[in-house]
Amino acid sequence: MAANVETYITKIEELDKKGSGKAIVWRDTGEVNPKKLKLNIPQTLVGETVKVTVENPERKWAIVAADEIIEEHPERVEPPCPHFDRCGGCVWQHWSYTGQLEEKTNHVKKVIAQEGFDPSLVAHAIGMNEEWHYRNKMEFTFSKDGSLGLHEQGNFRKVIPLETCLIAGNDMVDATMEVVKWTKEHCLQGYDKDTHEGLLRHLMVRQSFTTGEMMLGIFATESPSGPLTTAVEDLVSRITTMYPQVKSLLWLENRDWADRTQSENTHVLAGRDFIYDEMLGYRYRLWFDTFFQTNPIQAQKLVELALEMAQPTKDDKMIDLFCGVGTFSLPFADKVGSLAGIEIVEASIESAKRNAKDNDVTNTYFLAKDARRGIDEVLETFGIPNLLLLDPPRSGAGGKVMRRIGRAQPDKIVYVSCNPDTFATDIKELEPFGYKLKQVQPVDLFPHTIHVELVALMSRE
Ligand SMILES: C[S@@+](CC[C@H](N)C(=O)[O-])C[C@H]1O[C@@H](n2cnc3c(N)ncnc32)[C@H](O)[C@@H]1O
User: Fold this and answer.
1) Which of 32, 63, 105, 460 could form a cystine bridge with 125, CB 3.0-4.6 A?
2) For residue 342, how far is its CA from the centre of ligand 1 (angstroms)?
3) Which domain does 378 fall in, by range?
4) CB of 345 closer than 6 A to ligand 1?
5) Prediction pTM value
6) Do the domain assignments include residue 84?
């Protein structure tokens, strides 16, 4: 039976959490009251008038693509990437970069105002001078025919084969395309998530923008020896010849049913099992599973801003909560008396310790623990800090951790956030402890996406 289809002309009222336009249409169904239909329309902007066709409009809500943009937003631009229509990588390529930064700034203002803070404390978001090819790490998924790509918008099961990627570093894209050529020439099959059959799962590619060193890691369901020996030898030969900057070529066995980039058995096909990266003159070793900021140019600005806001001195005793591999810890440790870092991932803490050693930083103490428990332990063993920096994951630090920080009464708190919503609710917890929000600086680490980071300063009155 043919589906009921209706066409409407409607106006975009606001954006949803995924960056799509939201509109409401009132359908005249012949009944006394018209029926409300909520629409989420990707790739549209607030104020635009659009034409949409909806199948089965009797439902209350639908996600639909616009058939036509009848009245365009003045900041609408032509998306430069050929995959923009389908790829879920970046959703705002149709919006000028100035417009994106304006939206990100306003979003931070809005969420902190909702918690009762003064939005005029929020400065305009710091954007990039060159807002393409900014990522130093990508994870592509193999499709069944051996192509590599990213997941389709709104459909995690489908992979869009890519010919290019405008947010990944240029060398990284070239090397990725060479891997695709290799899979096709050797007729190697991608892994099928439904049947759990096939060889190749993901390609992880990361490159330091400072040292130039690159890592390529192929996640596969079989060992690289035996029947795969000839193909793998060819891969090593072409990658090492064509890309001498690849200092780590890895084959990572992963037979797990979970769709994650993890390894049960790591084979170093060429070079070492890590690459060197540098930020602000500090050297970091990155393994395939080490978290490191993925936009190094803007991440450096985050560290510089945190230093500027905190104004650390040798008299300071500091805690770096959610410290990862020490991206903030090392530059701060050189300026404060002593620093304790807390982080849940043990491998990151091991890495932070090694990074401190490699950089001759000797006044640090790192603890691998959940922040909720680690903070008590550090307060007991290390003492009360007068400076505290926290950089939690998107879910935020949570009330318990924030109240513990409040009770410890450091003079200054620098909050680095990758989610303004959880930032706003977290800092609300500090108010009863006498803290005032002084400054909020949004920084754009992910142009053409909805994400925005920020650095903020709170201090005791
Ligand atoms: C946004 S990253 C920041 C890492 C680091 N500051 C950096 O810039 O590289 C957040 C970090 O918090 C860690 N993390 C997540 N949940 C945690 C928890 N409950 N306790 C401690 N650390 C946690 C993650 O492993 C991750 O390294």
Assistant:
1) 105
2) 8
3) 101-129+295-460
4) yes
5) 0.93
6) no
325, 339, 344, 372: which to mutate for ligand 1, most atoms within 8 A of CB? Answer: 344
Encode pLDDT of 198-251 as tens digits.
999 999 999 999 999 999 999 999 999 999 999 999 999 999 999 999 999 999
Q: Is the CB of 327 under 6 A from ligand 1?
A: yes
289 domain-assigned? no
- When pLDDT is cut at 50, 70 and 90, the band that residue 1 belongs to is low
Ligand 1 touching residue 324 (CB < 6 A): yes
299 Cα nearest atom in ligand 1: 8
Query: Torsions phi, psi of 322, nearest 5?
Result: 65, 55
Question: In this structure, are 377 and 275 located in the same domain?
Answer: no
Q: Is the CB of 346 under 6 A from ligand 1?
A: no
Band of pLDDT at residue 89, cut at 50, 70 and 90: confident
CATH of the domain at 175: 2.40.50.1070
Q: Whose CA is nearest to atom 8 of ligand 1?
A: 327
The answer to whether residue 81 is catalytic is: no
Is any ligand 1 atom within 6 A of the Cβ of residue 361? Answer: no
Task: Please tell me the distance between residue 9's alpha carbon and the centre of ligand 1 in angstroms.
Answer: 45
Which atom of ligand 1 lies at the shortest distance from residue 293's CA?
9
- Tell whether residue 93 is among the known ligand binding residues: no
Looking at the structure, tell me whether residues 151 and 261 fall in a common domain.
yes
For residues 266 and 377, membership in a common domain is answered with no
- 433 carries a ligand binding annotation: no
For residue 444, the model assigns a pLDDT of 98
The total number of structural domains in the chain stands at 3
What pLDDT score does 2 carry? 61
- Summary mean pLDDT of the chain: 94
Residues 180 and 325 in one domain: no
Ligand 1 centroid, distance to 390 Cα (angstroms): 9
For residue 339, give the CATH number of its domain. Answer: 3.40.50.150
CB atoms within 10 A of CB 32: 5
